[in-house]
Design brief:
The protein starts with a strand and ends in a 10-residue tail after the last strand. Strand 6 and strand 7 form a beta hairpin. Helices cover 28% and strands 26% of the residues.
Length: 176
């Protein structure tokens, strides 16, 4: 059993529909513990592209972190994501990032392989990951970086959080 945090994002096509697709597909793989609200966020790393819709999904399931990663990549592919080698932070239909994971006993799962780094190596720098995560898990800790609340309040993250727009009209709930 592992507990995982996924960050999902989209800035091409029907962004809300792409996020709903990701939540539905993830729900087929395990138990969805929580889905954050959706935030519209400025693009990160390459600002010459449309704004993103971002959210976070907390889950548990009987998968290894390597299996979770493969599932995330498959879901991106099914949503028509095209990876541009020359433009790393290019626009995308769907991004499903494995941010962090814990064993059933609550021990953080750490990885540093060519395929997977856990926790995600840039999660502590990304408001679009931390703000939605804090919404659904107020006492969250990012392994190696501390309390998510402290990360969100630190400069320059606070300015990035202020640039995010909550979209309460966009709903991602999983039907049971």
């Amino acid at each position: 059993m592992t507990s995982v945090v996924f960050s999902i994002g989209s800035n091409l096509g029907d962004r809300a529909d792409h996020l709903r697709f990701a939540v539905r597909r993830l729900a087929e793989l395990g138990e969805v513990a929580a889905v954050s609200g959706v935030y519209e966020t400025p693009p990160w790393g390459d600002t010459e592209q449309p704004a993103y819709y971002n959210a976070v999904v907390l889950m548990t399931g009987e998968h290894s972190v390597e299996e979770w990663l493969l599932h995330a990549q498959r879901i991106e592919h099914e949503a028509g994501r095209v990876r541009h080698q020359a433009r790393r932070y290019s626009p995308r239909t769907l991004d499903v990032d494995l941010v962090a994971a814990w064993t059933g006993e609550g021990t953080p799962v750490l990885r540093t392989t060519p395929e997977l780094t856990l926790p995600h190596p840039h999660a502590h720098q990304r408001a679009f990951v931390l703000r939605p995560w804090l919404e659904v898990q107020p006492y969250a800790q990012l392994p190696g970086h501390g309390w998510v609340n402290d990360l969100v309040l630190a400069d320059p993250m606070a300015a990035e959080v202020a640039a995010m727009t909550a979209l309460p009209e966009v709903r991602l709930e999983v039907e049971s």
